[in-house]
Write a structure and sequence with these properties.
By secondary structure, this protein is α/β, with parallel strands linked by helices. The protein folds into 2 domains: 236 residues, 3-Layer(aba) Sandwich (Rossmann fold); 177 residues, Glycogen Phosphorylase B (Rossmann fold). It is built from 18 helices and 13 strands. The strands form 2 sheets. Strands 3-2-1-4-5-6-7 form a 7-stranded parallel sheet, sandwiched between helices. Strands 10-9-8-11-12-13 form a 6-stranded parallel sheet, sandwiched between helices. It is globular, with a radius of gyration of 22 Å.
C-alpha cells in the first residue's frame, strides 16, 4: 500500500455485528461514538448487521459518517447453530454473525471503494477476514475487543443455574479462546477497553500490538443544565429519590445483577429509606427483570432519554457479578454527577479510586451499607459526584479517546507494505 499523502483523507470501513442506531446498548454506543469521532478525521463507511426482525433506523443527521451500509443477520441461537456451536470449531456466537447478506454487502462495499483500514468489532466477525484481505489495496485490519469474550463466558459459566448451561458455557469459552488466539496471531492491531485486558492478551501472545481505547462518555450531554432540562420536560419535581440501575436488560450479566440486587440488598435499603425507589432502566427487560416490578421497584423498559432518571437519582448501582469489559453505565452516571456504588467486577477497568470517585462493595450487606452512606451524607454524595464527573471529563470523554484510535489507523495506513504495519504501530 502506498504511503498516504499528507492532507489526504483516509478511508475507513467500520464493521459491526449490530446496528449503528439506535445507540441503546453499551456496544452500540461505543461503536456509534468511535465511528462518529473517526468521521471527523476520515471518510468512514459503517457496515452494520441488523437482527432478523429489526427495523431500519437511521442515525441522527450530521453524525458525520459518510455512508451506512445495512445488512441483515440470519436467525440466531437456532437449534442447529447451538449444536454446531458446541461441536466447533466455530462457537455459536460466531455462527450467529454468519450471514450471506453481510458477506455479499461486505464484498460489494470493499470493491466499490479502496479502504486504507478496516475496523471490525470483536471476535464474532472473524469469518469475514478472508474477504477483507482480498479487498483492493489490502487494507490493514484493526479488531476492537469490547470484551475478552472467552473470559466473560467463563464468568457466566461460574454462575449459571444448571449444569447443562455451565457445561455449554465452558465449551463455548474454550472455542472462543481458540478463535481469539487466531485473531491475536493474524492481525496487526488490537484495541481493548482497559489495561487489565491488554495485559491479559499480552500474556497469551507477547509482542502483540494491543492498545487501550477505553469506553467513554459525552460529558457535555450529561451536564447539569442538560439534566435539568430533561427533568423539566418529564414534569418531575427534581427530588432525588431514585436508586438507579441502567443497562440493557436482555443481557445476562445485567439480568443477574438486577435480580440478585433486588432480592438481596434492596430489601434492607427499602426498610431504611421508605421514600426511595429502585428504578431499573434499560431496553428489552427479560421476564425475570419484569417480574421484579412492584410498588417500590420500577422497570421502565426502553426510554427516550435516560438523563431525566439520572436527574432524580440519589445514586446509581452496578451490582455486576459476571461479564467483562468496562461499564458505560458507570461512566454515564459519573458524567451526570450521580454517586456510584459498584461491585469490584462492575467497576473493573475504570481508573477510579474507591472512596474518591465511587464506592466499591461486594456482597449484599456491603452494598446496602454503601448505598446508605451515600443516601445519608450529603457531603459524601457531593464529593463523590464532583470527583466522578471530573475523572470522566479528564480521562473518558469520547473526543480524547478517539484521537488515539485515529492515530492507530493512521499509522497502519502509512505503513508502505503489510510486513511493516506492526512495526509502524509500535513506533
Amino acid at each position: 500500500m502506498p504511503n498516504k499523502i499528507p492532507g489526504d483523507s483516509m478511508n475507513i470501513l467500520y464493521f459491526a455485528p449490530h446496528a449503528m442506531w439506535p445507540a441503546n446498548t453499551g456496544a452500540r454506543l461505543r461503536d456509534y461514538q468511535l465511528a462518529l469521532q473517526l468521521a471527523a478525521c476520515a471518510n468512514v463507511t459503517f457496515l452494520e448487521m441488523r437482527g432478523a426482525e429489526e427495523t431500519l433506523e437511521t442515525a441522527p443527521a450530521g453524525c458525520g459518517v459518510a455512508k451506512v451500509v445495512s445488512s441483515k443477520k440470519e436467525c440466531t441461537y437456532t437449534i442447529s447453530k447451538l449444536l454446531r456451536g458446541l461441536a466447533g470449531p466455530a462457537p455459536v456466537t460466531v455462527l450467529n454473525c454468519r450471514s450471506r447478506d453481510a458477506f455479499q454487502l461486505l464484498a460489494e462495499t470493499l470493491a466499490a471503494g479502496q479502504f486504507d483500514t478496516v475496523q471490525i468489532e470483536g471476535v464474532h466477525l472473524m469469518e469475514y477476514l478472508p474477504e477483507i484481505r482480498q479487498a483492493p489495496g489490502s487494507p490493514a485490519v484493526v479488531v476492537d475487543w469490547h470484551n475478552i469474550e472467552s473470559e466473560a463466558m467463563r464468568r457466566y459459566a461460574c454462575g449459571a443455574a444448571s449444569w447443562v448451561k455451565r457445561a455449554a458455557a465452558r465449551r463455548t469459552a474454550n472455542l472462543l479462546e481458540r478463535a481469539e488466539d487466531i485473531l491475536l496471531a493474524a492481525l496487526a492491531a488490537h484495541t481493548v477497553t482497559s489495561e487489565r485486558e491488554r495485559q491479559n492478551l499480552l500474556a497469551r501472545r507477547p509482542g502483540a500490538n494491543v492498545q487501550v481505547i477505553p469506553n467513554g462518555v459525552d460529558s457535555d450531554h450529561y451536564s447539569a443544565a442538560n439534566l435539568a432540562e430533561a427533568r423539566a420536560r418529564s414534569g418531575g419535581d427534581g427530588a432525588r429519590k431514585n436508586l438507579l440501575f441502567v443497562g440493557s436488560m436482555d443481557y445476562h450479566a445485567n439480568i443477574d445483577a438486577a435480580v440478585w440486587f433486588a432480592r438481596t440488598a434492596w430489601p434492607e435499603i427499602a426498610r431504611n429509606y421508605p421514600d426511595m425507589q429502585f428504578t431499573i432502566v434499560g431496553r428489552d427487560p427479560s421476564r425475570e427483570v419484569c417480574a421484579l416490578a412492584s410498588e417500590r421497584i420500577r422497570v421502565t423498559g426502553t426510554v427516550d432519554d435516560v438523563r431525566r432518571y439520572y436527574a432524580t437519582a440519589v445514586a446509581a448501582v452496578a451490582p455486576i457479578r459476571c461479564g467483562g469489559g468496562t461499564r458505560l453505565k458507570i461512566l454515564e452516571a459519573m458524567a451526570a454527577g450521580v454517586p456510584v456504588v459498584s461491585t469490584g467486577l462492575g467497576a473493573e477497568g475504570i481508573e477510579a479510586e474507591n472512596g474518591t470517585h465511587l464506592l466499591l462493595a461486594d456482597g449484599e450487606a456491603e452494598i446496602a451499607a454503601a448505598v446508605g452512606c451515600v443516601a445519608s451524607s450529603s457531603e459524601l454524595s457531593s464529593r463523590l459526584a464532583q470527583a466522578g464527573r471530573s475523572l470522566v471529563k479528564r480521562k473518558y470523554d469520547w473526543s480524547e479517546i478517539s484521537a488515539k484510535l485515529f492515530r492507530i489507523h493512521e499509522r497502519l495506513a502509512e505503513a508502505p507494505r503489510p510486513g511493516l504495519r506492526e512495526k509502524a504501530l509500535a513506533s
